[in-house]
Amino acid sequence: MAPLRATQCLALSKADMERLQRVFDALCIEQGWARDGEPARRHARMLIDDYLAGNTSEGRLLIAGRAFAESLQRGIPR
User: Fold this and answer.
1) What sign does the dihedral 12-14-19-25 (CA atoms) show?
2) DSSP-based helix, strand, coil % in the chain, nearest 5
3) What is the pLDDT of residues 37-58, one digit of tens each?
């Protein structure tokens, strides 16, 4: 698996963090991940990167997170 890449340093508002947390929690529950496990950490990084790139919709972030999980399960490197 590819190493996690650095994310730009940008302050997120409380509302931003709450939105990301809801999506992260939903993905952890759906996928059966421990919140502190490797898959969850990879997805947290992916969600933050996607958010900083402009995808701020909870629904679209959830779709992106599910697609990312599926690609990892199929062995497609990201």
Assistant:
1) positive
2) 65, 0, 35
3) 999 999 999 999 999 999 999 9
Q: How far apart are CA 29 and CA 35, in angstroms?
A: 9
In whole angstroms, what is the distance from residue 3 CA to residue 42 CA? 9
Q: Which amino acid is at 67?
A: A
Read off the pTM: 0.80
- Which residue ranges make up each domain of the chain? 35-78
Which CB contacts under 8 angstroms, 24+ apart, belong to 46-55?
46/78, 47/20, 47/23, 48/7, 48/20, 49/5, 49/7, 51/12, 51/16, 51/19, 51/20, 52/7, 52/8, 52/10
What does the block give as tokens for 2? 């590819």
